[in-house]
């Protein structure tokens, strides 16, 4: 609550936090006007404990201008300013997302995509800007207000880089792929083939990312735990990745190519290949391929077409054209597969088993503590630590399986509303499969969406 003080010539109101004082000059009788001076006002303020932040110039103008009975702010405090926390300035993209560029015709340019950020020896990676100190403040009664100083950040941990003596500059000490996650920065080796991958180079099995700057010949193998990027064409080869795959010029598989990724697959085109995709598949056309994606299959561009083979996108399929005017048999399927349902069931059973094991471990730890005094201290400690370590391992397994279970649950939920969409023409000869429902295309459909409605496969317009 504000404090209020009055005298013959002045009225003063001081805020509860002592950071502001408002004042008004009481209108005097005519014969007493000359008695009101700035010095009188200043003495009154000092008497009431106002020692700092007084706006003397404004006070003088109010009195000289005879601005009676008009409240004005006569004093104001200065809040303490907190210092700024330390912060890192990064000179590389800390979050690289594979996003293809869409051309004017709606097709996709996969050539300029990148899956990871590359650095070279000597590159400046990060600059640290130290925390700053705060500035003192004060209230109008003269009390100093303590500021909060900014907090320093912990040094970035990781490998593949050096830090200057003052701790401000981080520099790459090796060439490779750089990642920054959860406050840790690592430069990882990338297996790079500077030209074509053929028998003169040999098969590649690598725990990390692989980059091929040329073509991949038929019969070759790439098996990587990370991402795979191929800048040339892929023939009848086997490409496997633990993350994403980018095929910047596509696949001419001659029914021998196998492309498999736990993440996304991107490619200009896919011909006569087997494709297994843990997330989404994007390309400009699919020709005579057997494709399975746990996410969505998206074939773009005015020439984007799926012709022949079988394409199964659990979360949906969208294309410019489906089939062709020669009525080449083409199968398009959306919705949950038996494989996903089996995985979902198996993971649920595994979680239940692990939880039972954790409960058993907790019971054993509890029983052990009851007999603590009968053990030799060293023997008790050894047994206790072993049990705790086992519990930690089991909890980690449980967390990992819960994440997988949640991911599959979301896929199953989204799959129920999956649709097959065609922006131009769905040709005669295409067969559509949904969960328990089928539709054979016997006449051409244009700009259409096919989905299950009221116990059958219905057709709706697909907005462009």
Structure description:
With 464 residues, the protein is an alpha/beta fold. The protein is 20% helix and 37% strand. The chain contains 4 helices and 39 strands. The strands form 6 sheets. The protein has a 23-stranded mixed sheet that branches. Strand 1 and strand 2 form a beta hairpin. Helix 3 runs antiparallel to helix 4 (377-415). The mean pLDDT is 89.
CA(first)-CA(last) distance? 63 Å
Q: What can be said about the biggest beta sheet? A: 23 strands, mixed
Overall form: elongated
Number of helices: 4
Q: How big a fraction of the residues is strand? A: 35-45%
As residue ranges, the low-confidence spans are none
Q: How many β strands by DSSP?
A: 39
Short description:
The protein is an alpha/beta fold.
Secondary-structure map with pairings?
Elements: E1 3-6, E2 10-14, E3 20-25, H1 38-47, H2 56-64, E4 72-76, E5 87-90, E6 101-102, E7 108-109, E8 117-119, E9 124-129, E10 137-138, E11 144-145, E12 157-159, E13 161-163, E14 169-172, E15 176-181, E16 184-188, E17 190-193, E18 204-206, E19 209-212, E20 221-224, E21 228-230, E22 238-241, E23 245-247, E24 251-261, E25 265-267, E26 270-277, E27 281-283, E28 285-287, E29 290-293, E30 296-299, E31 305-307, E32 310-313, E33 316-322, E34 330-334, H3 338-370, H4 377-415, E35 420-426, E36 430-434, E37 437-440, E38 445-453, E39 456-461
Parallel strand pairs: 12-16, 17-19, 18-20, 19-21, 20-22, 21-23, 22-24, 23-25, 24-26, 25-27, 26-28, 26-29, 27-30, 28-31, 29-32, 30-33, 31-33, 32-34, 33-35, 34-36
Antiparallel strand pairs: 1-2, 2-3, 3-4, 5-9, 6-7, 8-15, 9-14, 10-11, 13-14, 15-16, 35-38, 36-37, 38-39
Helix pairs in contact: 3-4
């Amino acid at each position: 609550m504000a404090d209020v003080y009055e005298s013959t010539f002045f009225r003063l109101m001081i805020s509860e936090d002592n950071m502001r004082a408002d004042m008004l000059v009481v209108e005097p009788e005519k014969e007493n006007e000359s008695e009101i001076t700035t010095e009188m006002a200043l003495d009154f303020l000092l008497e009431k404990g106002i020692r700092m932040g007084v706006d003397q110039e404004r006070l003088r103008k109010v009195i000289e201008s005879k601005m009676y009975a008009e409240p004005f702010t006569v004093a104001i405090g200065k809040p303490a300013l907190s210092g700024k926390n330390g912060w890192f300035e990064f000179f590389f993209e800390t979050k690289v997302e594979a996003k293809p560029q869409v051309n004017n015709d709606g097709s996709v340019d996969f050539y300029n995509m990148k899956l990871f950020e590359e650095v070279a020896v000597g590159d400046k990676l990060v600059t640290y800007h130290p925390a700053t100190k705060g500035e003192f403040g004060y209230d109008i009664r003269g009390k100093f207000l303590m500021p909060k100083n900014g907090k320093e950040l912990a040094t970035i941990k990781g490998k593949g880089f050096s830090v200057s003596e003052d701790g401000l500059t981080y520099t790459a000490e090796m060439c490779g792929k750089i990642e920054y996650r959860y406050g840790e920065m690592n430069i990882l080796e990338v297996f790079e083939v500077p030209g074509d991958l053929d028998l003169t180079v040999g098969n590649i099995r690598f725990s990390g990312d692989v980059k091929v700057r040329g073509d991949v010949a038929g019969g070759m193998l790439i098996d990587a735990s990370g991402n795979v990027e191929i800048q040339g064409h892929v023939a009848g080869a086997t490409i496997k990745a633990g993350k994403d795959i980018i095929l910047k010029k596509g696949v001419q598989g001659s029914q021998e190519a196998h492309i498999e990724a736990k993440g996304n697959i991107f490619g200009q085109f896919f011909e006569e290949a087997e494709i297994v995709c843990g997330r989404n598949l994007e390309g400009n056309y699919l020709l005579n391929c057997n494709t399975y994606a746990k996410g969505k299959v998206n074939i773009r561009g005015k020439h984007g077409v799926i012709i022949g083979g079988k394409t199964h996108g659990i979360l949906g399929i969208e294309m410019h054209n489906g089939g062709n005017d020669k009525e080449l048999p083409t199968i398009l399927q959306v919705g949950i597969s038996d494989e996903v349902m089996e995985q979902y069931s198996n993971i649920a059973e595994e979680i239940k088993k692990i939880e039972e094991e954790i409960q058993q471990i907790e019971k054993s730890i509890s029983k052990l503590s009851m007999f603590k005094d009968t053990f030799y201290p060293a023997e008790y400690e050894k047994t206790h630590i072993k049990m705790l370590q086992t519990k930690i391992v089991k909890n980690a397994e449980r967390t990992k399986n819960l994440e997988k279970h949640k991911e599959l649950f979301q896929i199953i939920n989204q799959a129920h509303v999956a649709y097959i969409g065609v922006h131009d023409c769905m040709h005669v000869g295409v067969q559509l499969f949904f969960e328990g429902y089928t539709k054979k295309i016997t006449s051409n459909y244009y700009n259409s969406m096919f989905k299950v409605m009221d116990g059958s496969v219905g057709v709706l317009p697909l907005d462009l």
